[in-house]
Amino acid sequence: MAVYSPSSTVVTVMRTELIKGFQQLKTKRMNIPLRRWKEFGRKLDYILEEVQNIQDGNESVVQQHIGGGLYLTMSSTHPFMQFRQFYRSKEGDLRPGSRGFRLTFEELSELNVHLSAFNKLIPKLNTIRMCYENPGHNELRCMECYVK
Ligand SMILES: [Zn+2]
Fold first, then answer.
1. Which residues are near ligand 1, the ion (C-beta closer than 5 Å)?
2. How far is the CA of 144 from the centre of ligand 1 (A)?
3. How far does the centroid of ligand 1 lie from the alpha carbon of residue 110, in Å?
4. Model-level pTM?
């Protein structure tokens, strides 16, 4: 299972797993800045609809931007939701990087149940102003919207 830990600047998602073939535990973690966590919350209903779609056996490829280089990705061939860090290649394409954190659909639906209670532990979430709420916001010049 994944564990979520709130702080004043990030939400840390982490999981400890036994590495197959080694008698060793490894903890994977990823820090998600609060504004991206908030954007994740806003997109969660859509993500859960797509999870249902995939579980019903339909084809689906999901790639949702939640800010900076961070995306939510999943597909019928990779039935997990991933927080995945993307980067822009020299050629100018957007590419998935190696940094990511995977949630099973079961974990995602569990998170959905607890998300509003969890988010209440982070009062700052309510006062964060999203970049696109600012007047004169320009997506191409915005550090959150445009992936460098
Ligand atoms: Zn923006």
1. 131, 142, 144-145
2. 5
3. 29
4. 0.91
Domain boundaries in the chain?
A: 34-125
Calculate how far, in angstroms, residue 128's C-alpha sits from the geometric centre of ligand 1: 13
DSSP string, 63-124: EEEEETTEEEEEESSS-SEEEEEEEE-TTS-EEEEEEEEEE-HHHHHHHHHHHHHHHTT-TH
For residue 69, the CA-to-ligand 1 centroid distance in Å is: 12
pLDDT in tens, 13-66: 999 888 887 778 889 999 999 999 999 999 999 999 999 999 999 999 999 999
Q: 74 C-alpha vs ligand 1 centroid, how far in Å?
A: 23
The CATH number corresponding to 34-125 among 1.10.1790.10, 2.30.31.10, 2.60.40.10, 2.60.120.560 equals: 2.30.31.10
